[in-house]
């Protein structure tokens, strides 16, 4: 089971295993807002398993930039094929090297876009110009992503999380 961690301003921040949430509880770093029906038992104590917690203090963001990943790429491109404009579920999208690797293209933010499988096959290891295709938007390195995307990869949200997740992600 996982626990949804909210910022002090009640926005989704991250998802952690319930064990990490319990540790944060005992260190007085979070307030528990919702619990699961399950209990955590030890020989001397029983506590409810935390479903949603809120940080008591803001966390200093020490990260520089957004980590390159398939989910973050799809989020940057709004789950939209950058060639035909089709908005599709992640399962029907792939990522495409604008300058193909065989032509020296690197796997970096500035050279990768989201593409549907038909467009990716049509481009077939060529540059968009060589394939007669046009990019809707030039790839770029994002400085941040919407916080609510933290839950967008979950297939089904636990009921306890629903009131804390923006409608577009539930």
How is this structure best described in words?
- The protein is α+β, with helices and mostly antiparallel strands and 170 residues long.
- It folds into two domains: 2-62 and 158-169, no CATH class; 71-131, Orthogonal Bundle (DNA Binding (I), subunit A), CATH 1.10.30.
- 16% of the residues lie in helices and 25% in strands.
- It contains four helices and six strands, in the order E-E-H-E-E-H-E-E-H-H.
- The strands form two sheets. The protein has a four-stranded mixed beta sheet with strand order 2-1-4-3, with helices on one face. The protein has a two-stranded antiparallel sheet with strand order 5-6.
- Strand 1 (2-6) and strand 2 (12-17) form a beta hairpin.
- The two termini are 18 Å apart.
- The model has no long low-confidence stretch (mean pLDDT 88).
Blueprint (SSEs and pairs):
Blueprint lengths: L1 E5 L5 E6 H9 L3 E12 L4 E10 L14 H7 L16 E5 L14 E5 H7 L4 H4 L39
Parallel strand pairs: 1-4
Antiparallel strand pairs: 1-2, 3-4, 5-6
Radius of gyration (CA) equals 20 Å
Low-confidence stretches: none
Strands of the widest sheet, in order across it, are: 2-1-4-3
How many structural domains does the protein architecture include? 2
Number of helices: 4
Helical content, roughly? Answer: 10-25%
Q: How far is the N terminus from the C terminus?
A: 18 Å
Number of strands: 6
Structural class: alpha+beta
Tell me about the largest β-sheet: 4 strands, mixed
Question: What form results from the Cα inertia axes?
Answer: elongated
**Integer average pLDDT:** 88
Strand content of the residues, in percent?
A: 25-35%
Subunit arrangement of the protein = single chain
């Amino acid at each position: 089971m996982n626990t949804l961690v909210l910022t002090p301003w009640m926005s989704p921040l991250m998802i952690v295993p319930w064990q990490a949430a319990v540790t944060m509880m005992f260190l007085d770093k979070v307030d528990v807002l919702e619990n699961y029906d399950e209990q955590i038992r030890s020989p001397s104590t029983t506590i409810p398993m935390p479903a949603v917690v809120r940080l008591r203090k803001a966390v200093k963001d020490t990260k520089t930039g957004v980590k390159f990943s398939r989910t973050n790429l799809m989020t940057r491109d709004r789950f939209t094929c950058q060639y035909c404009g089709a908005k599709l579920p992640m399962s029907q999208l792939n990522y495409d090297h604008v300058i193909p690797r065989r032509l020296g293209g690197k796997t970096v933010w500035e050279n990768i876009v989201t593409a549907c499988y038909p467009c990716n096959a049509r481009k077939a290891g060529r540059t968009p110009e060589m394939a007669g295709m046009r990019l809707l938007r030039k790839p770029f390195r994002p400085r941040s992503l919407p916080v609510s995307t933290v839950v967008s990869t979950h297939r089904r949200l636990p009921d306890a999380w629903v009131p804390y997740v923006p409608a577009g992600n539930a």
